[in-house]
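pasting for the record
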Amino acid sequence: MSADILNRRDFLKLGVAVGAAAAVTSVSAPSFAATSCTSLSKCMEMTPVEMAEASGAVTASWRNVRHAAAEIRNPAIRHRVEAILENPVPTLTKGMGRSDKKAIYKELSSKGLIKGVKEADFLPPVSSYSEAPQPFYSAPGSGYQSHHSYPGGLATHTDLNVRVSMALYDGYRDVYSYMLDRDVVIAAQVLHDLHKPWVFQWDKNGESRGEQKLAGTGEHHPLGVAESIVRGLPAEVCVAQACAHNHPRTPEDEAQVVGWIQAASIIAGVDPVKYGLLEKGGKTLPLPRRQEGFVTHLGDHDWVLTVPAAKWIIPVMGKVAVRDYGISEGDLTKKPFNQFRNYVFSQAPIMSLYEIYAAQGEAELVRTVHSIVAPA
C-alpha cells in the first residue's frame, strides 16, 4: 500500500475538498469536430503528432490524464507516473546488449512465456534510449484495425478508463466503506498501456506497427509492467497494472496474471517474489489478494464497446473515402486512406462517429466527416 493512506474520516474530508476544487477547475468537453475544415492534401502531409495536437478531443483527454496523475498523493509514485507520461521511453532496454536480449529471450522461451515469435522480432525497435519514439498523446490505443486506432487514441482510451476506475473507487467507498488505495488505482490505470507509444509506432504509410505476443497477450502489457518495475514503481502498483488484462478470480485467471508478472520480471531483471510481485513460491499474487487489480481490470473495458465500433465504422469510412474523396479502392490499405482516416478519427474519435452513425444514420456521419475534411 502507498505510504500515505488516510483514515476514512480524513479521506472523506479531503474528498469534499477535492470535489469542490474539481468543480472549479474542470473544463467542459470540447466538440469532437475539427475547429476548421481542412483539405485532403493537408491530411496527407500531417504527422501523427500534428494530428493529435490539432484535436480538441485528444488535447482534452491528455489534459485529463495528466490531471489524474497529479492527484496521486504519494510524491514518489506521482513523480514516477508523471515522468513516464512525459517521456514513455523504454528505459528497460537501456544497457541491454545483444547477448542480454538473447538471454532474456531464451529464458522466456524455456518457461513457455514466448511462443511463435522469432528472436529477431522480440521487442519493438528502439532508436533512442533517452527519448520515446513518440509522445504518449500521439500513440494509438491499439492495433490498426482495433479500438482507438488513430493518433491520440491512447489518450482518449486512458482518459475513459481512469474515469471508470475512479467511479468504481467512489462506489466501493460509498456503498461498502471499502477503502481501496486511491493512489494505486490511479497509477495502475494511467500506466496500464504505457508502452503503446513504443509498441505501436507509426509507419511511413500511416499505419501503426503490428504487435507481437508475449506471455499469451499483446506484448505491450508485460513490457509495460516491466517498465514500471524498472522505473521503481511499488509492487502494489505493478501488480494492479498487471491485472488490467485479467483478474485473479480463479486459479486459471490468476495463472495468466502470474505469467505476465513473470515475463515482466525476467525482462526487468528482478526476482518477482523479493520485489513483492508474487507470493512466496511464485504461484499466486501476494496474499491476501488486494482489490485494486480487480478495479484496474474492470476499468480497462473500454475495448468492449470500442473494438466492435471500430470494426463497423472503418469500412463505412472506406466507402466514403472512395465516393467523396477520390481515394481508389487499391489505396484503402495504403497511405492515402490511412492518412485520411487517421486525421478524421483523431478529430472525431471513433466512438463519437459511431454514435452519430448508429443514432442518426449514415447521412449525418458523412456530413460530419465532410465538416472535418473537405470533399474532393
